[in-house]
Amino acid sequence: MRRPLNSLIGSSAFAFYEVLTTHCRALKSGNLADVYTANKILNAYARCKELHIARKVFGEIPHRDTVSWNTMIAGFVNCGDLGTACEILKDMKRCGFDFDGYTFGSLLKGVASSYRLEVGRQLHSMVIKMGYEENVYAGSALLDMYAKCDRVDDAYMVFEYLPEPNSVSWNALIAGFSQVGDRNSAFWLLHCMEKEGVRVEDGTFAPLLTLLDDIEFYKLANQIHGKIMKLGLAFDNTVCNAMITSYSECGSIRDARKVFDGAVHMRDLVTWNSMLAAYLVSEEEELGFQLFLDMQRLGFEPDIYTYTSVLSACFEKAHKCHGQSLHAVVIKRGLECSVPISNALIAMYLKSNNTSMGEALKLFESMELKDRVTWNSILTGFSQIGLSEDALKIFGQMRSLMVEIDHYAFSAVFRSCADLATLQLGRQVHVLAIKSGFETNEFVASALIFMYSKCGIIEDARKSFEETPEDSSIAWNSIIFGYAQNGQGTIALDLFFLMRDRKVRLDHITFVAVLTACSHIGLVEEGITFLKSMESDYGIPPRMEHYACAVDLLGRAGRLDEARTLIESMPFKPDAMVWKTLLGACRACGDIELATQVGSHLLELEPEEHCTYVLLSHLYGHMRRWDEKANLTRMMRERGVKKVPGWSWIEIKNQVHAFNAEDRSHPHCKEMYRVLGELMEEITWLDADTGLDALINLLR
Fold first, then answer.
1. In DSSP terms, which residues pair with 69 in a beta bridge?
2. Are 233 and 267 in contact (CB under 8 A)?
3. Among 110, 334, 524, 572, which residue's CB has the most CB atoms within a 10 Å radius?
4. Would you say 387 and 357 are in contact if contact means Cβ atoms under 8 Å apart?
5. Most confident of the following: 1-10, 59-68, 507-516, 596-605
6. Could you say which DSSP state residue 488 is in?
């Protein structure tokens, strides 16, 4: 059981009271002149983060030693003030004091925390000059600094110079290779560490477990778990929490729960958060919500991570009420000022459905402090729900307010440019991405490929693909989609086989792209073969979207009976997307009977979705079945369903102008309607037989 927050605050206050009392006694007895006593008081103030008092005491010590200086440096480093710590180092040198391993150790810890590699390198040169490269404390801190700055090769070189590396050194190196995702090197180091007889600790296993993040590593996770139990580390909090996360990412929520249940007497807030995240990763939202309630019932106060995690589970329509309840809890507990929690709420409202856009905007506008994530959330939200013009306006605001533009922002903007087919603006943003150094980022490259493909410039899409890392499955999927949607399905399939031969990781999106390519060039048998071989040959079970693609494939070929049979044989209940695909195929083939059956089913599933009514209405009109069309119109009116108007747009001088039927929002609408009226008058004056030809000539 954790200690309540008020007891922690109380203990901090008590510690500060104790050091004040000790300080007073030392002043009264004159013991402050004793450097040992003075250093103890100095260290106590630094631990209480009372650095202004510590600095005053430091200035009053008559005979400082190296420990005094090291204590001050460590105090400022631990409070995240590396700049002041470096200034104290300069003063220390100016006053003629020698640095030791602890001096360098503290400073390098600060460098590692702030990722200041250039400062770390300067300190490294000082370590070498002063002959401390073989000092275990300085060497381990140096190694840790390089590892945390992702310079694992430099970290390994430092490690090789240590005469007798201890467990801290080994753990820092293993953590470094784990951080950069080098699984083979990290586990090889574990083997070497055990072979050398160095004691394996919780700090050894925790980073290694982060590498076991896929179903293919489940057996290895089991083996590591066995080793942990054998060494008596199973009840260590750090290891336990990492084990829960690892099992959940390996697809075994059952094992994750076993570890959680076994840690009943040592659970901390991180343990609860790890289990909550495990449920959400496994799409067990209801169990996650129950866990959220259980932890509070047992006295654990949720933190920012807890709230942001549980809010991320409220995107689905079925959980919208939970999201609104959580929003109320956030307000009640005064947490609406927390930027991460507000960001999570914005994302929740944006992803739940289009009707919640108002709530998201209200939250966004009410935030006094906005970080990059806030702007990216609203930008991405606009882009994903089709409000691409608004997304581009938000991007313009970000630029004018000097908000840092990252790969998420660029990806959203490129997709908005693709949606509006604003090629010129897309090219300008592409130049900005190049200047910002993001053109080779796999997410940005994928969005660029998508934009150029959507605008029909497949050659530029291919150029963007060629500039990305060869092992990026995201970029491969995008270019396969691009060729498929541009009617070049054969090239798309050739790229798929090349992707497979080069051992680039295939995923479910790859097969959506492949099935789309087969559909666009009419390779029916090949497409069905891909669908059937997904799980057996590639270990990827077909999802809803794969069956929808296969239905589209069969529908385009006019094989409606086979499409319906495929739907009936699906291992899970088909959703509205699958039925809409079949309905679209019925309309294309003119099969009114099957369309009526499918339409009736869709109207039960989604009675408020206007697309089904529109598709059926068009089909009834095309087949001249006016009674059914009239019944459908009446049903729409009774249910309050309105057809969402389509939009048209044109890009003139790098500005997008959008219109829908009877739209009068454009600033030049009066002039446009005047010209339109003149055109309509011309049509009525002309002979009925030549009216259409005349209109075409006028438009030219």
1. none
2. no
3. 110
4. yes
5. 507-516
6. -
